Hints:
This protein has 141 residues and is mainly beta. It is 3% helix and 37% strand. It is globular, with a radius of gyration of 14 Å.
Amino acid sequence: MATISLKHDIxxxxxxxxxxxxxxxxxxxxAVKMNATTGEVIQTAASNDPCVGFIQEGLSPASGxxxxxxxxxxxxxxxxxxxxxxxxxxxxxxxxxxxxxLVLPRGTTAGTIYNVCGIALAxxxxxxxxxxxxxFYEVQA
Length: 141
């Protein structure tokens, strides 16, 4: 079986739009949502927040250096991006965002509507990068 280099063979960001960061964003690969009052993008702050895409500018979470408030960022909303896991994620899990722009498998509480942001293209554990195929939709558990 051939070995796949994830960084080169799978991750292919698609379309993006330019936006202004409405607040500091902790790191690259963070999920962002629109600020309803200003139209700027801000890092997701709660579990199951609906997001509009993922930024790819900045440095890793360990560096703590992401775009500052007022910086121009590119928000990728199609294709495959790098995301950061907030916990254990299995291959092909439907994922949702959580605090600090991180990603978790979507919840399973009966009757709850979850905002899916993508499908995991690799298994991973907490605080590691993984490829996420972007798909935005709601699903009820």
